[in-house]
């Protein structure tokens, strides 16, 4: 059976701090910082914009797009287009989010593909120590990484106007099936003696939102690493402050990057368990932290932020792939500095010595690289 449940996307807090929950970093310190900042956040979700979205026909368009995407992906992968769906449970704090609703092939798509699950991305948030600037504008980011195919539809909604946020570049990155991030050399991030990882780019990329505020990514389901529940990072770049380098399909601001919002996408525990039973995830020897034990995730939920989005299996088994979607409410007027862990340039990857991270990669030579210039042979979108 194809399952439809929820993923979690959390609002995260404190751009200036680089104490983050990655291998070698202090999870408790980040959780405490975020908890303090979340107290001052007024959460506004998609539910509060529902009337405006309905009136504009956006919700109808969302449902049609998601249903169409599901069928196109099934056709592309040679899967049964008539496979049944199980509807999600809309209770936001349920542990599994699997539903007892009676859903069959004749169920109205509006039951399955609505935007009831959403998240508020709070202003001023930590991007974590593993953010890398200079990545390609591309939707397909898996490169040669093996894992369960993941297709993610992310829609940005302005919290003030309840309108879609078009033409915003969304940065997207996560670890591979065995818990390793590209572009980073650090203790706990795979083989820290492998200096070549500083030059890798897998599972990183940017997309510009369309007229309906939607960016679409093709990736693999992320793996796990010690101390954190399975998650994906997202970071938006401020409207009207992003210039594309046409010669290499990157954005400007390699050394002066800004953000309007940052968040982390989490996944339903039942879905994680199903994925973790497959290879190469099952070969991951790092400790698995479940959602219930993730201190950062728990802070988000305790702050009454509705963090849930939906997903469906593309086929009868999780290994056939997953389509997931989320509508994210953000304050499009925000603009904060970003301190990346590394830069990817025409000369390869370089550690940002000012980031406070623990990487062992090369340091960027002063004045040696034009901002946002990627090396020749950089993988295409």
TrEMBL record:
A GO term for molecular function: oxidoreductase activity, acting on single donors with incorporation of molecular oxygen, incorporation of two atoms of oxygen
Regions of compositional bias (Low complexity) in chain numbering: 365-381
UniProt KW Calcium keyword: no
Source species, domain of life: Eukaryota
Keywords: Signal
Signal sequence extent: 1-21
The keyword Signal appears for this protein: yes
Pfam families: Dioxygenase_C (PF00775)
Residue ranges crossing the lipid bilayer per the database entry: none
InterPro entries per UniProt: Intradiol_dOase_C, Intradiol_dOase_core
Annotated stretches, region: Disordered: 75-101, 344-381
Intradiol ring-cleavage dioxygenases domain boundaries: 141-270
UniProt name for this protein: Intradiol ring-cleavage dioxygenases domain-containing protein
Organism listed in the record: Aspergillus ochraceoroseus IBT 24754
């Amino acid at each position: 059976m194809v399952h439809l449940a929820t993923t979690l996307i959390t609002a995260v807090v404190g751009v200036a701090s680089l104490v983050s929950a990655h291998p070698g970093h202090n999870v408790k310190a980040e959780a405490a910082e975020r908890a303090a900042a979340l107290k001052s956040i007024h959460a506004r979700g998609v539910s509060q914009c529902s009337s405006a979205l309905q009136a504009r026909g956006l919700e109808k368009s969302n449902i049609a797009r998601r249903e169409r995407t599901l069928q196109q992906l099934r056709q592309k992968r040679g899967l049964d287009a008539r496979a049944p769906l199980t509807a999600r449970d809309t209770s936001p704090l349920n542990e599994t989010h699997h539903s007892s609703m009676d859903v069959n092939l004749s169920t109205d798509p509006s039951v399955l593909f609505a935007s009831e699950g959403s998240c508020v991305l709070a202003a001023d948030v930590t991007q974590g120590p593993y953010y890398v600037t200079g990545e390609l504008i591309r939707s397909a980011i898996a490169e040669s990484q093996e894992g369960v195919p993941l297709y993610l539809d992310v829609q940005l909604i302005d919290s003030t106007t309840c309108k879609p946020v078009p033409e915003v570049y969304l940065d997207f990155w996560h670890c591979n099936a065995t818990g390793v991030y590209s572009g980073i050399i650090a203790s706990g991030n795979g083989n820290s003696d492998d200096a070549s990882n500083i030059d890798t780019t897998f599972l990183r990329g940017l997309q510009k939102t369309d007229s309906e505020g939607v960016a679409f990514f093709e990736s693999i389901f992320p793996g796990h690493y010690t101390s954190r529940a399975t998650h994906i990072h997202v970071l938006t770049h401020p409207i009207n402050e992003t210039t594309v380098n046409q010669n290499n399909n990157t954005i400007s601001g390699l050394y002066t990057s800004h953000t309007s919002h940052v968040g982390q996408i989490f996944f339903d525990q039942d879905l994680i368990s199903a994925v973790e039973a497959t290879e190469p995830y099952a070969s991951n020897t790092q400790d698995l932290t479940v959602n219930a034990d993730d201190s950062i995730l728990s802070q988000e939920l305790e702050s009454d932020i509705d963090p849930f989005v939906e997903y469906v299996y593309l086929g009868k088994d999780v290994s056939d792939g997953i389509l997931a979607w989320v509508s994210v409410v953000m304050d499009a007027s925000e603009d904060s500095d970003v301190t990346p862990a590394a830069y990817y340039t025409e000369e390869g990857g370089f550690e940002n010595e000012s980031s406070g991270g623990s990487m062992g990669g090369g340091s960027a030579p002063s004045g040696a690289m034009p901002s946002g210039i990627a090396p020749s042979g950089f993988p295409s979108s």
